[in-house]
Amino acid sequence: MLVGVGxxxxxxxxxxxxxxxxxxxxxxxxxxxxxGSSSGSGAASSTGGTGGGGASGGSSSDGGSxxxxxxxxxxxxxxxxxxxxxxxxYVGTAxxxxxxxxxxxYAEILAQEFDEVTPENAMKWEPLxxxxxxxxxxxxxxxxxxxxxxxxxxxxxxxxxxLQHPTWLSASMTPEELxxxxxxxxxxxxxxxxxxxxxxDVVNEAVDVASxxxxxxxxxxxxxxxxxxxxxxxxxxxxxxxxxLFYNEVGIERIGAxxxxxxxxxxxxxxxxxxxxxxxFQSHISIHRYPSLGNLRSNIRRFADLGLVVSLSEIDxxxxxxxxxxxxxxxxxxxxxxxxxxxxxxxxxCEGVTFWGFTDNYSWINDDGDxxxxxxxxxxxxxxxxxxxxxxxxxxxxxxxxxxxxxNGDFSAGLDxxxxxxxxxxxxxxxxxxxARAGTTAGMVQTDLAAALAEGAHAFxxxxxxxxxxxxxxxxxxxxxxxxxxxxxxxxxSVPAEPGAWVELSGYFGLGFESPLTSAELQIRGPAAxxxxxxxxxxxxxxxxx
Length: 546
Ligand code: XIL
Hints:
The chain has 546 residues and is α/β, with parallel strands linked by helices. Helices cover 25% and strands 26% of the residues. The protein has helices spanning 80-86, 97-102, 104-113, 125-128, 138-149, 175-192, 219-224, 227-239, 257-271, 293-304, 326-346, 385-394, and strands at residues 90-95, 116-119, 153-161, 199-204, 244-249, 278-281, 284-286, 289-290, 309-318, 350-355, 400-401, 419-421, 424-428, 431-435, 443-446, 456-467, 472-482, 487-497, 503-511, 517-525, 532-544. The strands form 3 sheets. It has an 8-stranded parallel β-barrel with strand order 1-2-3-4-5-6-9-10, surrounded by 6 helices. Strands 8, 11, 13, 14, 16, 19 and 21 form a 7-stranded antiparallel β-sheet that branches. It is globular and about 70 Å long. It binds (3S,4R)-3-hydroxy-2-oxopiperidin-4-yl beta-D-xylopyranoside (XIL).
């Protein structure tokens, strides 16, 4: 039985919610799997790199080599710390202070591999303030001491969040009472660690595009409206003018509905003079489906263009939604970690990444009754393939793209290989267009892909255009059949497309089969009947570490 690559909505944070892209085509459709053109704007920050290398576009991997280490791009590093430093980035981990206290191996690896920590829970409002008039600093102080003893910088997390805030805060407080509580908490906490904490997540997860307003329905939003966000940042700047102030959010790695809302919100706040220095993309991903490298990098760049620094702030990569044995899942996970760290290494505005822990022994993902292997070290503290992926990414090596599994993906041979699916198909320049579509499942199809597809990590990328509707979601669906008789529709990418504009439809996905693959076809579909759908530059390529 094959478990759905398409079942994105089955699991919670970070993995769903922000599907697709509205990427305007301005300069922009960076093709991970299509034509292979590089979206790279150049080198990582120069602080650690030696080769001055811009991305060497046009190769089989988007991004190319940075030329680190003066040895022609083959830089090497013994630890994540070293590798990140070569890229001029930091590498952080969530710090589980209880594990640190009780587990010497945990403490040793934490010190050796990372140069920044984010206390996983110890600096959240709830543990800090058990009552309205008392603070308990024990775990937070110890976390800061640990970091300093290891020569690690500290990111404080998090001042205002709809979860893990004290139970004595309540929706029956008056606006003035709640504002005072927030202000006092921010001043007290940031004041205590002034000069020690480099950066703070001031507001966490304020956006929820599933709600009527687009904002998370927290006590803060309900009592104060969206202004609480601006207030929190202003109080934070006063409390510690030196600390970098971050907005941190889940599920915004991909350009799409949620990241677009967040982008508009942050743009408006900055225009109002609200002091925000950076944005954290939490990056809780699943290896069965996640944003493509080009999409992630474009997303980093648009926030950078607002003047912000960007971080990938809570990385972990679930594996269990990919069918197959552990060996396969861990190999695919390696590529996912490599993609995330290489995106940061290749984007000058990305200041660093933080993993949400480092050993599968202690991961918050194990706590919700659904244990997984989402991190870099296994439960016995052995390095997993994911560790090597993270290291390679920091060294400026993104995953490499293999041969296109599709025939005539660029339509250079007319319509060869393509068929209309309940639609008429015609060539229009270098694009194929489906018209007279019968319904949302009608569009374009390429069949007989089974022989060209193997288990493992893949990149899908294309450009799509719709005509004849306001906005229409376009999906790339892989329909597979297995020898055991099961079949599945795997949604490998989707995008809300605006009429008349080419937009990027891309995504990375893992394939695993529990019995041999007997047939596979790609379908591009989604808009309402009769909306014309055009497609160009289509690629579906295996991803490998090198
Ligand atoms: C998690 C911690 O890892 C868990 O130990 C705790 O029980 C719940 O919170 N997004 C965030 C983090 O911003 O603070 C969350 O951390 C994970 C999701």
